[in-house]
Design brief:
By secondary structure, the chain is α/β, with parallel strands linked by helices. The chain has two domains: 155 residues, Leucine Aminopeptidase, subunit E, domain 1, CATH 3.40.220.10; 311 residues, 3-Layer(aba) Sandwich (Aminopeptidase), CATH 3.40.630. The protein is built from 14 helices and 21 strands. The chain is elongated and about 75 Å long. The structure holds ligand BES, manganese (II) ion and zinc ion. Manganese (II) ion binds next to loops.
Length: 490
C-alpha cells in the first residue's frame, strides 16, 4: 500500500473521499469543499445519514470518484477511542467498496489528546488491519484480493505535512509487524512448530543489514543449563528452539531494550492436562513470541535508530511418558530450584530462563510478553493487557505508550506478599501460588528472576487474540511495544 500525506487541494479527483460527519450533520475534519458540507447536512435532515458512531454510507460520484461518509458521533464524545473506531469502520467500508485510491479527509480532524502524527499513524495501521486476511486453508469461497492501492492522509495546514508523513510511515511499518505477528499466531500448531518459528525469524532477517537472527537448538539450550525451559519441552516430540533476534539501528555502545516472548506453540497443559473445550485456542500461546518478532520486523522496516533484542524460548507443552510431573523439581538457569506443582503453569518456566539469559545483553530494560494466565483474562478482560514491573518509570512509560498507540495496558501490584504465595517446602519456590491473584503470582514468579534488572511483564492472555465468531490474532501488543521502542530506544 502506498501511503502519502497531502493538503486537501492535492487530492486526486478520482480518489474515494472519506469524510467524517458528526451526529448533528456537521463535517468533522476537512472536506472537498462547500458542496460536501451541504450534502452532509441534507443527508442528515432527510435521516439518510445520521452521523452516529458506526454509521458509514458510500455514495457514487462522477467517473471513478466516490464519497464515503463515516459517523463521528457527538462532538462531546470525540476522543482517541471514538476516532479510532471511526477509522476502523471507514477502513472496512473502504475495502468493501473496491476503490483503488482513497483520501482520508477525516484525518484533518482535531481530536483531544491525539496529534497529527498519531492520526496519520492510525490511518495507516487501521487501513492495513482492514486489509488483513487470515492465512487460512479454505479450499473455496476465498474473497478476491482488494483493489486498494493508494491512501492519502489529508492535513489542514502545510505545517502539518511533516508530522503526517512520519505518521503514515510509522503506521505502515507497524502494519508490517502486526501482519507478521498475526500470521504466525493464526497458523495451526501442526504448522507453526518451534522449528517453524525459528525459520520464520531467520526469514525475517533475510536482506536486513541491521538484523541478526540466531536459532539455538536442544544441545545449546542444554549447554546453557536452562533446566526450567527444558522441563517444559520434555514431553514433546517437537524439538525446542531459543530464538535471538538482534536489531541494531543505533551505535553498538547503546544498551538494548530486550523483549522476551512466550513461544509455547501449543499448550495442552502437559500432565496437568487442560479441559477440552476451547483447547484449540492454545495454538495462540505463542502470541508473545509472535509480537516480539513482529516488533523487530516493524523496527527493521522503519530503519529505526534503536537497539532492540528479541528473545523467544519456544516449545510445545505436551503430556507423555517422559513429561515433567507435578511435584518434580527442576533447576533454572539462575540456579534457583522450582517445584513444578502444575505443569500447566509452563509459560513462567520458559520465561524465567529467558530472563536470566537476557542478562548477557546488558539490557537497558527487559520486557516479557506472554499469554500467561487465564486469571488475567478474568481480572481485566480483553480490553487492556496486564502490566507488572519492578520499576515505576518503566511501568509509566509502558502505560503511556499503550494509551497513545490505542493498545492499552493496566498495572497490577507486585509485592512480597504475592511472592510469598509461591513458597514451597521442597524447593526455592513453587511454580504456582494458589487460587488467589493468579495473574499477579505469575508475575511475582518472574520477578524473582529479574533481580537487578529494570523489568516489566505484559500478560496478554486476554488481548492477544479474539475468541468466538471473530476468532483470530489481534497483533497486540505490537503497537504498544513499537511505540515504547521508538520513544525510549533512542
Ligand atoms: N497459556 C495459559 C494461559 C491462558 C489461559 C492463556 C487462557 C489464554 C487463555 C497458561 O499456560 C496456563 O495454562 N496458565 C494456567 C496457570 C495455572 C495453572 C496457575 C491458568 O491460567 O489456568
Ligand atoms: Mn499452560
Ligand atoms: Zn500456556
Amino acid at each position: 500500500m502506498q501511503f502519502t500525506a497531502s493538503l486537501s487541494r492535492g487530492v486526486r479527483r478520482s480518489a474515494c473521499a472519506i469524510i467524517g460527519v458528526h451526529d448533528d450533520g456537521e463535517i468533522g475534519g476537512a472536506s472537498r469543499g462547500p458542496a460536501d458540507a451541504a450534502l452532509a447536512r441534507r443527508l442528515h435532515k432527510s435521516r439518510d445519514f445520521n452521523g452516529r458512531a458506526g454509521d458509514t454510507l458510500l455514495l457514487p460520484g462522477d467517473g471513478d470518484s466516490r464519497l464515503l461518509l463515516v459517523g463521528l458521533g457527538s462532538k462531546k464524545s470525540l476522543n482517541r477511542r471514538t476516532f479510532r473506531r471511526a477509522l476502523r469502520d471507514a477502513s472496512a467500508a473502504l475495502v468493501r467498496s473496491g476503490a483503488a485510491d482513497a483520501a482520508f479527509f477525516v484525518a484533518a480532524l482535531e481530536v483531544p489528546e491525539v496529534d497529527g502524527y498519531y492520526r496519520a499513524r492510525y490511518v495507516a495501521e487501521l487501513v492495513e488491519a482492514a486489509l488483513y486476511r487470515i492465512p487460512d486453508q479454505k479450499t473455496s469461497g476465498k474473497p478476491r484480493p482488494s483493489s486498494l492501492k493508494s491512501v492519502t492522509v489529508v492535513v489542514a495546514d502545510s505545517a502539518d505535512l511533516a508530522a503526517a508523513r512520519r505518521g503514515v510511515a510509522a503506521g505502515a511499518s507497524l502494519a508490517v509487524g502486526q501482519r507478521l505477528s498475526k500470521d504466525l499466531a493464526n497458523l495451526p500448531a501442526n504448522v507453526c512448530t518451534p522449528t517453524y518459528l525459528g525459520a520464520a525469524a531467520t526469514r525475517m532477517a533475510r536482506g536486513q543489514r541491521n538484523l541478526k537472527v540466531r536459532v539455538l537448538g536442544l544441545a545449546e539450550i542444554r549447554r546453557l543449563k536452562m533446566g526450567s525451559f527444558l522441563s517444559v519441552t520434555r514431553g514433546s516430540d517437537e524439538p525446542p528452539r531459543l530464538i535471538v533476534a538482534e536489531y541494531r539501528g543505533a551505535p553498538a555502545a547503546k544498551a538494548p531494550i530486550v523483549l522476551i516472548g512466550k513461544g509455547i506453540t501449543f499448550d495442552t497443559g502437559g500432565i496437568s492436562l487442560k479441559d477440552p473445550p476451547g483447547m484449540d485456542e492454545m495454538k495462540f500461546d505463542m502470541s508473545g513470541a509472535a509480537t516480539v518478532l513482529g516488533t523487530i520486523a516493524a523496527l527493521a522496516d522503519a530503519k529505526a535508530p534503536v537497539n532492540v533484542t528479541a528473545i523467544v524460548p519456544t516449545c510445545e507443552n505436551m503430556p507423555s511418558g517422559r513429561a515433567t510431573k507435578p511435584g518434580d523439581i527442576v533447576t533454572s538457569m539462575s540456579g534457583q530450584t522450582i517445584e513444578v506443582l502444575n505443569t500447566d503453569a509452563e509459560g513462567r518456566l520458559i520465561l524465567c530462563d529467558a530472563i536470566t539469559f537476557s542478562r548477557r545483553f546488558k539490557p537497558k530494560v527487559v520486557i516479557d510478553v506472554a499469554t500467561l494466565t487465564g486469571a488475567c483474562v478474568i481480572a481485566l478482560g480483553s480490553h487492556v493487557s496486564g502490566l507488572m514491573s519492578n520499576d515505576d518509570q518503566l511501568a509509566d512509560a509502558l502505560l503511556e505508550s499503550g494509551r497513545r498507540s490505542g493498545d492499552p495496558c493496566w498495572r497490577l501490584p507486585l509485592t512480597d506478599d504475592y511472592a510469598d504465595q509461591l513458597r514451597s517446602n521442597f524447593a526455592d519456590m513453587a511454580n504456582i501460588g494458589g487460587r488467589e491473584a493468579g495473574a499477579i503470582t505469575a508475575g511475582a514468579f518472574l520477578w524473582k528472576f529479574a533481580a537487578g534488572l529494570t523489568w516489566a511483564h505484559l500478560d496478554v492472555a486476554g488481548t492477544a487474540y479474539q475468541t468466538g465468531a471473530a476468532k483470530g490474532s489481534t497483533g497486540r501488543p505490537v503497537s504498544l511495544l513499537l511505540d515504547y521502542c521508538l520513544t525510549h530506544g533512542r
